[in-house]
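ESCALATION

Customer reports they have been waiting on this structure for their group meeting. Please prioritize. Original submission:
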Amino acid sequence: MDADGVAAPKDASASPAGQGGAEQRVEQRGLAGVREADQAGVGDRLELEQQFLVLSRLAAQRDSQAREWLVQSLRERFGREGLKHAGALALKSGQSPFDVQAEMSRWLGAFFED
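Update from on-call: job pushed to the front of the queue and completed.
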């Protein structure tokens, strides 16, 4: 202990401010449960695969919603008979349902509107 009653570090020369001691042990420990992969890029590849799956699901959901909107829109305007005349409504991936709706409305309008 020094004159003020404060205990000195066991090895004062090995533990200057900012180095050694408990601070160094914490720095060396890192994050518990975090390990590095055996091969470089494995974590990145897994992350990209997960992102791809999420984006694929979102694209499928978007396409399904677009088709449902198109069917509903044409049914409201032309009824069930209009949908029968329209036949199978298929959207290409990424195709705007608004463009298809406009085209189908022009075509069906010739049958159902005066």
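Sent to customer with the following note: The mean pLDDT is 76.
Escalation resolved.
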